[in-house]
Design brief:
The chain is an alpha/beta fold. It has 14 helices and 18 strands. The strands form four sheets. Strands 8-12-13-7-14-15-16-17 form an eight-stranded mixed sheet, with helices on both faces. A hairpin with a 3-residue loop joins strand 15 and strand 16. The longest helix is centred in the middle third of the chain and has 26 residues. The structure holds 6-O-phosphono-beta-D-glucopyranose.
Length: 513
């Protein structure tokens, strides 16, 4: 264990308001999420002065390790995964507050040991009896761990102390299982103690969707069916399933991305203005959008949804394997790695405005963006000019890897004739705000510590998300895809995804203007 005394950031350097005293207990502390995201996020919070000065972490996992060995491991990992430079002083400060507890998630005796260790840590680090339990484990343990925490008396909030539980995705694997999981954990926890995390909501540009819409008077009046032709949301990845073939075989593109990340983007794009930024005011409006999405009937599941699976292809000039040849994937797998769909929101604002959604692995480019396509201006003014077509205005909210917002409009091409060129105004985050590397978990962890659940999914929202995809999952289970693999790695998915829009006289935005 380190014997060097490390200094906490001095209050004079403090830019934001640090969270109050607390201890964070990570279940699944030896896993990927902890080393890649959670510990680097805690380090970033420390560096930007948002971490409480009275703080400690207990890592809890199956692996046999001492606290000293765990600290050594994390010290190596942080250098590999942190995107900012790790200084010995700051890391030393955090490392001195990290402990490890080897235990079995299902053994009550280990929860008693955890309880004792928490008492010691509260005393040593002044963490005030406030405990944040982070379940970074396989979903099979979510209910079991919550139950054990309850039985060990670790959930009770006494004397102004708080106890919160963060639950990672996937929250259930269909509607029924999500309802069952909500029911199980709510036997132990109050809704306000549950933080169902969706890491998309930790992305600055995703949070900006709401700020952009509601802090600018010029957009809200045109944000409806009178002016908007349709909305497109693309979440395209160039990576394949990497080491996660086992998990992905049970999930597939639809479960993995749609009920959570993509529907959150839909909700933020389509929601009504909330009455405040209070957690329930925002979540009420998002929930209304999810409830207004029309579940597809069995015929629509065939005509309005497209599934795909990648075959071999080329990404970044390198030949890559097809999905069926990836590790832990069945050679005849029927798991989709691509999904596209058309959905409608049955509300006054959105009646008749289709939302086209697509997501896939091993696609041509990595891009996440929301595109609002406005209705075209009438062409008749231009009838005596060479202009035979007007391009619609596009507002593109770019979430990653570019972060920004662009607006496409028509401008006169210089010259004696009337010709129109499509041009764009382009705001890039980095130009105005610089770049501050983050894991996407910083805000979310800070919010858990300060008790702000605005960016977390409520029980009804998770269930509504699953109820939207459930009919599609059932339809796909009943009718195996016969044409898999149906797109080559490095392309934009199966042709049917283009047909889906072309049937409506539309097309997916190409990332080039
Ligand atoms: C995860 C999915 O939730 O999100 C992964 O399980 C996916 O399959 C990832 O790759 C995408 O997240 P991001 O932040 O890289 O867009």
């Amino acid at each position: 264990m380190s014997t060097v005394a490390h200094t906490a950031p001095s209050p004079s350097q403090v830019k934001g308001q640090p969270a109050g005293p607390c201890a964070m207990i990570i279940f699944g502390a030896s896993g990927d999420l902890t080393k890649r995201k959670l510990i680097p996020a805690l380090y970033n919070l420390l560096q930007s002065h948002y971490l409480p000065s009275d703080f400690a972490v207990i890592g809890f996992a199956f692996d046999q390790m001492t606290t000293e060995q765990y600290r050594l491991k994390l010290a190596e990992d942080i250098h590999e995964f942190s995107e900012i430079q790790v200084t010995p002083d700051l890391w030393g400060w955090l490392e001195d507050r990290i402990y490890y507890l080897h235990g079995d998630f299902q053994d009550p005796a280990d929860y008693q040991r955890l309880s004792q260790q928490l008492t010691e840590i509260d005393r040593k680090h002044n963490t005030g009896g406030n405990h944040l339990f982070y379940l970074a484990t396989s979903p099979t343990f979510f209910a079991k761990i919550t139950d054990q925490l309850g039985q060990a008396g670790l959930i009770a909030e006494n004397d102004g102390q708080w106890r919160r539980v963060v639950i990672e995705k996937p929250f259930g694997h269909d509607y029924e299982s999500s309802v069952a999981l909500n029911r199980q954990i709510s036997k132990v926890l109050k809704e306000k103690q549950i933080y169902r995390i969706d890491h998309y909501l930790g992305k600055e540009t995703v949070q900006n969707l709401m700020i952009f819409r509601f802090s600018n008077g010029i957009f809200e009046p045109i944000w409806n069916r009178r002016y908007i032709d349709h909305v497109q949301i693309t979440v395209a990845e160039t990576v394949g399933v990497e080491q996660r073939g086992g998990y992905y075989e049970t999930a597939g593109a639809l479960r993995d991305m749609v009920p959570n990340h993509i529907l959150q983007l839909v909700a933020l794009t389509a929601m009504e203005p909330p009455i405040s930024f209070g957690a329930d005011a925002v979540r009420d409006e998002k929930a209304k959008v999810l409830h207004a999405i029309q579940p597809l009937d069995p015929d629509e599941c065939k005509t309005c949804v497209v599934r795909g699976q990648y075959g071999p292809g080329v990404i970044d000039n390198k030949q890559v394997l097809g999905y069926r040849s990836e590790a832990s994937v069945k050679p005849d797998s029927n798991t989709p790695t691509f999904a596209a769909m058309k959905m409608c929101i049955d509300s006054w604002r959105w009646a008749g405005v289709p939302f086209y959604l697509r997501t896939g692995k091993r696609m041509a480019t990595r891009v996440t963006e929301v595109t609002i396509q406005f209705k075209e201006a009438p062409l008749m003014l231009f009838r005596d000019t060479p202009v035979d077509q007007l391009k619609p205005n596009l507002l593109v909210i770019q979430i990653q890897p570019e972060e920004g917002i662009s607006l496409r409009f028509g401008a006169k091409v210089p010259g004696p004739n009337v010709n129109i060129g499509a041009v764009k105004m382009n705001f890039k985050y980095v130009d105005y705000f610089g770049s501050s590397p983050s894991t996407g978990y910083e805000t979310l962890l800070y919010d858990c510590m300060t008790g702000d659940s605005t960016l977390f999914q409520r029980a009804d929202m998770v269930e509504a998300g699953w109820s939207i995809v459930d009919p599609i999952l059932k339809s796909w289970d009943e009718h195996a895809a016969r044409d898999f693999p149906n797109y080559a790695a490095g392309t934009w998915g199966p042709k049917e995804a283009d047909d889906l829009l072309e049937r409506d006289g539309r097309h997916w935005r190409s990332t080039m203007i």
